[in-house]
Design a protein that fits this description.
Blueprint: E1 7-17, H1 21-30, E2 38-42, H2 50-53, H3 58-61, E3 71-72, E4 85-86, H4 108-118, H5 125-135, E5 136-138, E6 152-156, H6 162-173, E7 189-192, E8 194-195, E9 197-198, E10 201-202, H7 205-213, E11 219-223, E12 225-233, E13 236-244, E14 247-259, H8 262-272, E15 275-276, H9 278-283, E16 290-291, E17 303-310, H10 317-320, H11 324-337, E18 349-353, E19 367-372, E20 388-395, E21 403-405, E22 416-418, H12 425-442, E23 453-456, H13 464-474, E24 475-477, E25 509-511, H14 526-548
Parallel strand pairs: 1-2, 1-14, 2-11, 5-6, 14-25, 15-16
Antiparallel strand pairs: 3-4, 6-8, 7-18, 9-10, 12-13, 13-14, 17-20, 17-23, 17-24, 18-19, 19-20, 21-22
Length: 558
């Protein structure tokens, strides 16, 4: 494309690509300095779709082109050759507008590992805990573990289910302690998840961080802006090219471009711009700007193994929502009190445990449960006609590694997503043990009064080999992809960014989102992503005097 065919949008101190969780935080923090101008680009639209804000509305946002990129994985050998839907937020707020709303930090050791990998103690648990607290508005008020008065609202869920209470009792009978807080660095135990809601309404990053910043004249937000590539002058990033409607635009950056497009779209954009595995890029006809072997590699995700049980003598959502009067009651509860099933996060009860309690080499929980008072064959299909609950168990620290890579030089083409689930012996072993652990909990005395009958994967799977097959049949993503632009040291050949999230070998460019995680956190990944953006904003603001001292951008090369 000729440069004169592109319209110049303007010149800004910072350009942020992607208005997801990280992008919203960055836009807020960077514009706190009135003398700094920021452009925020979002490929999706505004978050004014009503189903974004009703918690149960995630059912209508996932798989909806208004709010979801509609990605799919490649055929997965470890999952019986299936291709999975791979939801990613395409709207202001990004995945925080369509996710499960669960507030989860992970475990102390997750962040201490990051500090070791990067050689930067500022990524350790003791260093990031104050960062989590700073933006938090916790329902319990400020204490050693939580903050209050911040932008990120954390509340208790507004409903209880008898079948979930009983599952919690069964988990305790199986050796798990009860807990009222999964966010103190050791999330061992069983209890209800805290959620990012305010009075029964989803609290996404757009509401929390972007709306306050919208009042500032130094922030420009453009929706419907699909970034095509980064603009480079030698090894320096000086702007972006994006498409809005039928027009191609250029925007210049005086200081930095910050890519916050997520674990799928961030490596895609780097590769489209000539930053990635040189041989791969050359094979697609893309000029190599910087050979960074790790771009798009190191994909990690949590695989959920769904086990469902038919129960008797207790009501679940399956039958409550089956009749007109049940649906009317559900709607009335939400309309009048913002309570009931419409206020539900996708998962209500959680548990963290060791997949094999008898294995002394497992020193901390390595599986997470998401327990729901419902069952269905697969996401998006009708609920079963009988009462049942689902206990999805997720191995927390997979050793399998996948990839995200572009399929062509055209930004409109979806990237190739290959999570590579269950590709290691260790991951298959943990999966088998996790299924066995679920059966152990369900067979505890507390649940006996409901006569649970396993319907998924089913009692036919008993031996180690059979359970490994079952894991491949029932396993599916729980939507936590990370790691595709992982951070590390300058001499780490697998690293894409350094400990300050600067792209190695390129100036004027950072990546700030879940893609920079070197290893996945032991739990849901949205709030850790928010913390990363908080830390990044501190780094960016600290580096500003040096960046402002550089010569201004004189032009853009195409």
């Amino acid at each position: 494309m000729k440069q004169d065919a592109r319209k110049l949008e303007g010149e800004f101190d910072y350009i942020i690509v992607g208005a997801g969780t990280a992008g919203c935080v960055l836009a807020n923090r960077l514009t706190e300095d009135a003398d700094v101008s920021v452009l925020l680009l979002e490929a999706g639209g505004r978050d004014n779709y009503h189903w974004i804000h009703v918690p149960v509305g995630y059912l209508y946002c996932i798989g909806n082109p208004r709010t979801d990129w509609l990605y799919k994985t490649q055929s997965e050998p470890g999952l019986d050759g299936r291709s999975l839907s791979y939801p990613r937020g395409r709207v202001l707020g990004g995945c925080s507008s369509i996710n499960g709303m669960i507030y989860m930090r992970g475990q102390r050791e997750d962040y201490d590992d990051w500090a070791r990998i990067t050689g930067d103690r500022d990524w350790s648990w003791d260093s990031v805990l104050p960062v989590f607290k700073r933006s938090e508005d916790h329902h319990g008020g400020p204490n050693e573990w939580h903050g209050a008065g911040g932008e990120w609202r954390v509340e208790k869920q507004r409903l209880k289910w008898k079948v979930l209470e009983t599952f919690a009792q069964a988990a305790q009978e199986s050796g798990l302690p009860a807990t009222d807080d999964f966010n103190r660095g050791d999330n061992t135990g069983v209890g209800y998840f805290d959620v990012n809601q305010r009075s029964g309404i989803r609290w996404n990053a757009s509401k929390a961080f972007l709306r306050p910043a919208m009042k500032r004249p130094n922030l420009t937000i453009i929706t419907g802006a699909h970034t095509q590539r980064l603009m480079m002058e030698g090894k320096r990033c000086v702007g972006v090219e994006y498409r809005g409607g039928d027009t191609d635009y250029l925007a210049k950056s005086r200081c930095e471009v910050i890519v916050s497009a997520g674990a799928v779209n961030s490596p895609q954009l780097l590769e489209l711009s000539g930053i990635g595995n040189g041989a791969r890029l050359q094979s697609l006809g893309i000029d190599v700007v910087q050979d960074v072997q790790g771009v798009g590699e190191n994909l990690q995700d949590h695989l959920q193994l769904r086990m469902a049980y038919k129960v008797h003598g207790v009501q679940t959502l399956n039958t409550l929502s089956a009749h007109w009067w049940g649906k009317a009651w559900i709607g009335l509860q939400y309309m009048l009190m913002r309570r009931g099933p419409m206020s539900m996060a996708p998962s209500q009860l959680g548990a963290f445990a060791k997949s094999d309690p008898d294995d002394s080499t497992i020193t901390r929980p390595d599986v997470e449960y998401h327990v729901q008072p419902l069952s269905l064959d697969r996401f998006g299909e009708p609920l079963h006609s009988f009462n049942a609950f689902t206990a999805s168990v997720c191995p927390l620290r997979p050793t399998s590694r996948g990839s995200v890579h572009i399929a062509s030089p055209d930004a409109r083409d979806a990237p190739l997503i290959a999570p590579n689930y269950l590709s290691t012996d260790r991951d298959r072993e943990v999966a088998v043990n996790a299924l066995r652990l679920t059966r152990r909990i369900v067979s505890a005395p507390a649940l006996a009064k409901y006569s649970p009958e396993e319907i998924l994967p089913g009692p036919a799977f008993q031996t180690h080999a059979e359970l490994a097959v079952a894991a491949g049949k029932v396993g599916t993503t729980i939507f936590h992809p990370v790691g595709t632009c992982r951070m590390g040291t300058d001499n780490d050949p697998a690293a894409v960014v350094d400990g300050r999230l600067r792209v190695i070998g390129v100036s004027g460019l950072r990546v700030v989102d879940a893609s920079v995680m070197p290893t996945i956190t032991s739990g849901n990944t949205n709030s850790p992503t928010l913390m990363i953006a908080e830390r990044a904003s501190e780094m960016i603001r600290a580096d500003r005097p040096f960046l402002f001292s550089l010569a201004p951008v004189s032009g853009l090369s195409g």
